[in-house]
Amino acid sequence: MSESFPIPAAELVFEQEIKHSRFISLLFHCQSADDFRDILKNIRQRYPGATHYCQAFVAGRPGDTMAVGFSDDGEPAGSAGRPMLAVLQGSGIGEIGAVIVRYYGGIKLGVGGLVRAYASGLKQALPQLTTELKLLRFPARLECDYAMLRDVEYVIECHQGVIIHRDFGGAVALTFELPESQRLELNQQLATVSQGAVQACFDQ
Fold first, then answer.
1. CA-to-CA distance for 123 and 117, rounded, in angstroms?
2. In sequence order, which ranges of 126-202 are alpha helices (DSSP H)?
3. 2 band by pLDDT with thresholds 50, 70 and 90
4. Which of 27, 98, 102, 113 has the fewest CB atoms within 10 Å of its CB?
5. CA 182 to the chain's CA centroid
6. 10 class by beta-carbon count within 10 Å (0-12 exposed, 13-18 middle, 19+ buried)
7. Nearest to 57 by CA among 43, 40, 69, 66
8. Helix (H, G, I), strand (E, B) or coil at 169
9. CA dist., res. 120 & res. 18, Å (int)
10. Burial of 27 (0-12, 13-18, 19+ CB in 10 A)
11. Which band of pLDDT confidence, cut at 50, 70 and 90, is reported for residue 1?
12. How far apart are CA 202 and CA 140, in angstroms?
């Protein structure tokens, strides 16, 4: 399993006109269904009075089939949301959401025409989307003496770890996230700087 995958770095807006209807495609970073709902609400406010706000998202890794959603938003069943989702799942990009805003122009496109319109908007927009790599990190924890905290934090950071929480009790308990490939090297370096006193535990 790859430890990184591309995600959208910024929102992209792409517009096209098909038989007098305006189709405005928006692509953006989306980490959850709740995240998507918030962004959709904002898009409805930015583009008021549209006929449809068709939707699709993949909130997980590229091609994920579980953390997904779609809606035709009043278009004929299967003509918008599902074709949009298929394009996103085939894009190789994760944590991506899409909304296509349609302002109806008075000419019906038919189901086939709608499928082509909604899919083509995203297919044309995707090559223009700016992406960045997301590095997958996994939960870890350790305890150390106060005197060693600075050195331990430095070792974690050197191995691309991100500290989530510090609990200051009799000793310092650190909760952090770390790429799986860094586990062995992290514990080797921790053992060196602490003379074997500190080791990280991994939850999976």
1. 10
2. 149-158, 183-194
3. low
4. 113
5. 23
6. exposed
7. 69
8. coil
9. 11
10. buried
11. very low
12. 4
Residue at token pair 């962004």: 39
In eight-state DSSP terms, residue 78 is: T
What is the Cα–Cα distance from 164 to 100, expressed in whole angstroms? 36
Question: CA-to-CA distance for 182 and 58, rounded, in angstroms?
Answer: 28
Task: Say if CB 177 and CB 3 are below 8 A apart.
Answer: no
What are the φ and ψ backbone dihedral angles of 19, each rounded to 5 degrees? Answer: 50, 50
Q: Do 160 and 153 contact (CB within 8 A), yes or no?
A: no
Amino acid type, 115: V
What is the helix, strand, coil percentage profile of the chain, to 5? 35, 35, 30
Give the three-class secondary structure for 85: helix
Give the tens place of pLDDT for each residue, 82-133: 999 999 999 999 999 999 999 999 999 999 999 999 999 999 999 999 999 9
